[in-house]
Prior knowledge:
With about 170 residues, the chain is an alpha+beta fold. It folds into two domains: about 90 residues; about 70 residues, no CATH class. It is about 55% helix and about 15% strand. It has two helices and five strands. It has a three-stranded antiparallel beta sheet, with no helix packed on it. A two-stranded antiparallel ribbon has the order 4-5. Strand 1 and strand 2 form a beta hairpin. The longest helix has about 80 residues. The mean pLDDT is about 90.
Amino acid sequence: MGILFFGVLLVILSIYIAIYFNKIDKAKDKTNQVNLDLEIENQRLSDLYNEVCVINDSITGELNKVVHQKKSSEVRLGKVGENLAPFTDGWPWDPNNFRFIGSPIDGIQFTEDRIYLIEIKTGKARLSKYQAKFKDLIRAGKITFATYRIGEEGTEVEEFPIEKEFIK
């Protein structure tokens, strides 16, 4: 009876082992299928990401183009404004006594008792750093009238510093 018992026990144990390995094989198959599904989904997401990058690059390019066009339009509008400003109803001086320079300031307005350095701005435009520096130099009284003379014996510069108390 001992051998029969061990024989039955061995058969039962073999069945359990077979069932266990079958479950392991099914789990491996399921894991392989999940991995395959994840690889497919990963590739799909990667393709989608690449499409989004292409669309983003296209939109960014279009946005940069529109921003450039807007800035260019603002510059053109500013140039028109600079040229028309002396002839508008709000111009407080005689436009015939305005001289365009262009850069770093737009022009000089002459009156009987004063000379104005004029920078004309349109919209929300602000002074550039370069223009602001000149404004600061003027406020600090660092402005001079100079004569550059060309003569038979060469050239000569004569400077006439402006008194700071005359600058308001």
